[in-house]
Structure to design on (110 residues):
């Protein structure tokens, strides 16, 4: 039985397949030759290809739904980026951009 495709792999296909074709499937995703072509054909038939491409577009990237669609809880991070000075207005240790939160998780501000 063949390995199932994941959302992360579909996103990689949506990003790089238009430029490099099946090579992204063979070399980056370690799939058999022709598997990426077949997967993209299936995604286009079901309409998922256009949804993935839209999800990766710049307009959609700025929406709150982009982060939730990828299971990424950066909604508060998005709000801080859109509203400079929000960390001063929201003095919460668990706010993603606050210095106490970054110190707590051992992270850094990118």
């Amino acid at each position: 039985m063949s390995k199932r495709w994941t959302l992360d792999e579909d996103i990689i296909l949506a990003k790089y397949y238009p430029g490099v074709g099946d090579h992204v499937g063979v070399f980056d995703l370690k799939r058999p030759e022709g598997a990426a072509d077949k997967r993209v054909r299936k995604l286009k038939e079901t309409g998922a290809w256009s949804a993935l491409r839209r999800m990766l577009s710049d307009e959609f990237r700025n929406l709150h739904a982009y982060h939730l669609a990828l299971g990424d809880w950066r909604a508060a991070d998005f709000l801080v980026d859109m509203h400079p000075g929000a960390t001063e207005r929201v003095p919460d240790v668990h706010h993603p951009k606050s210095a106490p939160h970054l110190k707590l998780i051992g992270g850094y501000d990118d």
The two ends are 42 Å apart (CA to CA). Residues 78-83, 89-94 have pLDDT under 50 and may be disordered. DSSP finds nine helices and no strands in the chain.
